[in-house]
Amino acid sequence: MKRATRAVRAAQTDVALAGARLERDWKPWRAHWRKHRAALVVTGGLASGAALGLLPVRWWGGIGAVLGRLAAFVARSSLMPALTGAALARLRGNGRIPHRDEA
Predict the structure, then answer these.
(1) Three-state DSSP string of the chain
(2) What are the residue boundaries of the structural domains of the chain, listed by start?
């Protein structure tokens, strides 16, 4: 039992360290995106407009079909409750779902 507890603590520590490294590595990118947000939006709009104008309608139909199949697969999967819970926790802002007695 203690061996499993140590393994869980070690895994939690590894996850926390990886999260801290990821946060540190993404800070410059976030700062760049915040600084140039308007330019990125305009560039993205131009790129998507060019793609819509230049790619054939058949390709867009295929892309829509693939995205629809993927959405249906995710909706039917056993991971859907976990994904929904994670999304709701993220929308709440604090990442913590209160116990039913707290609500």
Answers:
(1) CHHHHHHHHHHHHHHHHHHHHHHHHHHHHHHHHHHCHHHHHHHHHHHHHHHHHHCCHHHHHHHHHHHHHHHHHHHHCCCHHHHHHHHHHHHHCCCCCCCCCCC
(2) 1-54, 57-103
99 or 72, higher pLDDT: 72
How far is CA 92 from its chain centroid?
15
CA distances from 1 to 15, 17, 35 (A): 21, 24, 51
Phi, psi of 77 (to 5 degrees): -75, 165
Reported confidence tier of residue 38, pLDDT bands at 50, 70, 90 = very high
- Per mean pLDDT, which of 6-10, 25-29, 40-44, 98-102 is the most reliable? 40-44
22 HSE (CA, 13 A, CB side): 6
Does pLDDT of 77 surpass 60?
Answer: yes
